[in-house]
Amino acid sequence: MQRTVDKIIDRYGAEEAELLAVLMDIQAEYNYLPRPALERVSEVMGVSRSRINYMATFFSAFSLEERGKHICTVCMGTACHVRGAPMLVEEFERILEVKAGGTTEDMQFTLETVNCVGACALGPLVIVDGEYHGNQKSAQVSRLVKKVRKADAKEGAA
Ligand code: FES
User: Fold this and answer.
1) Nearest 5 degrees, angle CA 58-CA 21-CA 27?
2) Residues 51 and 80 occupy one common structural domain
3) Predicted structure pTM score
4) Which of 25, 72, 123, 145 could form a disulfide with 8 if both were Cys (CB 3.0 to 4.6 A apart)?
5) Whether residue 90 is found in the same domain as residue 20
6) Is ligand 1 within 6 A of the CB of residue 124?
7) What is the mean pLDDT, run by run of 10 residues, along the chain of 158 residues?
């Protein structure tokens, strides 16, 4: 992990002004911000842990919790909620066998909910690995999960 973090820091330079970019790349690499990685950033860039923690908790794009390879997000904002978002969450929970906010045991999927991402006209909205899927129905949830699993299987076979 140390080598990976050092490479990321080298990419931008060890100036404090580059902290956000460095943290974003670490998040992209691990899907969360591992504690040892943050310690390394602090050591190499000379930025205090409290400053790093502040950044890590201020931006919702960052997670301090280990997350799955794939992130499934269901919008639970009002517009999506009234159009059936709770049923989508239930369907994800059933298929993935994990409660919202949790990660599957095999670390493949994290199921999250969010409050309005500003695309209310598309509601109910599901976001899988950053890709928006609007007007979703429960039956489509299993298709989304299958598609991700199929792509992974293909990737593994390649
Ligand atoms: S309520 Fe879901 S995008 Fe706004």
Assistant:
1) 70
2) no
3) 0.78
4) 25
5) no
6) no
7) 94 95 94 94 96 91 89 96 97 97 94 94 95 95 95 82
